[in-house]
Predict the 3D structure of the following.
Amino acid sequence: MSLPFELYVGLRYTRGGRHATRGNPFISFISTLSVAGIALGVAALIVVLSVMNGFQKEVRDRMLSVLSHIELIATQGALTQWQTLVQTAEQNPAVKAAAPYVAGQAMITRDDQVRGVLVRGIDPLLEPAVSDLGSQMLQGRLSDLVEGEFNIALGKVLAWQLGVRPGDRIALIAPQGTTTPAGVVPRVRQFTVVALFESGHYEYDSTLVLTALGDAARLFRVDGVSGVRLRTSDMQQAPAIAQQLARVVPPGIAARDWSQENRNWFAAVQIEKRMMFIILTLIVAVAAFNLVSMLVMTVTDKRSDIAILRTLGASPRSVMLVFVVQGALVGLLGTLAGVTLGTVLALNVGEVVGSIERLFGFQVLPAGVYFINHLPSDLHPQDVLTIGLTSCLMALLATLYPSLSAARVQPAEALRYE
């Protein structure tokens, strides 16, 4: 026999059959349920985490279509020599493009409609290199934002709320008022709507407006620019690149990456993923309880076999390892089946959900309610590895009590009535 004694017997008990489960086929049934339970738990965990990753990636990508990877911001006042700052930033090989901007908050009015908005002044020639706004235009183009003409581009939702379309006039009210003998008078500037965009992210489509760099500077009375937007070769490395840039830029300049701009949202998503992992791991724990029940019944059913093995010279440790092998193999089979099923479902979740929608005649994500109408999925290999290792560890822990019980079986007591 080339296999170790403990592994051979453990494999024999796991395989089942006439000799392995003589007189108690119910044990094989419980073993099958244990495998199925672990497989379903692992598959559910993989699919749910993949869908959550997909939603996170979808929202992040839509955010980054408007946001830049890194922003270099003047902590006090405005940047007057932003070209020099761009030259400093582009010395880092990871920085691929740069564009200046002027940002400020204002009130937008149209008839009796009033909304608070974020005004961003951009250079229409440089902006497409750091964001995807140029490709998200529903009507008009970024090049229509000609400096001096006070043109403006609105998000689709904001335009709908105000009831405006290209060619209409709106007014922007800057918070910095003009001091007159009668007191502080709000500064109002008329703009012409020339373009509409849709980023797919409600926050930006309902609050962001774009205008030419110089027009925004005049509106907010900024002598220069608010900062410089950068695009990097890898957005995942943006936090590290921002730290590198913070060490080389002049004093008074802060480097902020995209994750810092939405820190609360990303932190909430991470907490939600951890809680879902813990909750769905309980499914695997329930299957592990089935594994304990199966092993306890196997030990009870095999007391005479254990006694014979002990009389032939097997040590309590060897007997314990037999049942550890059996339980670990059941857990491994369930984990492998769950990983296979979960991976296939996660990679094809869109097609699976589409088939269910067609079969039952309903839509999981109605386009009028959610910002996407499909179920996204992003399978991470490290998630699959973590889930698989957790499942195997739980299965292994489930074998300890039954295996210790088997090791404590006394041969004379077990064979007394045989």
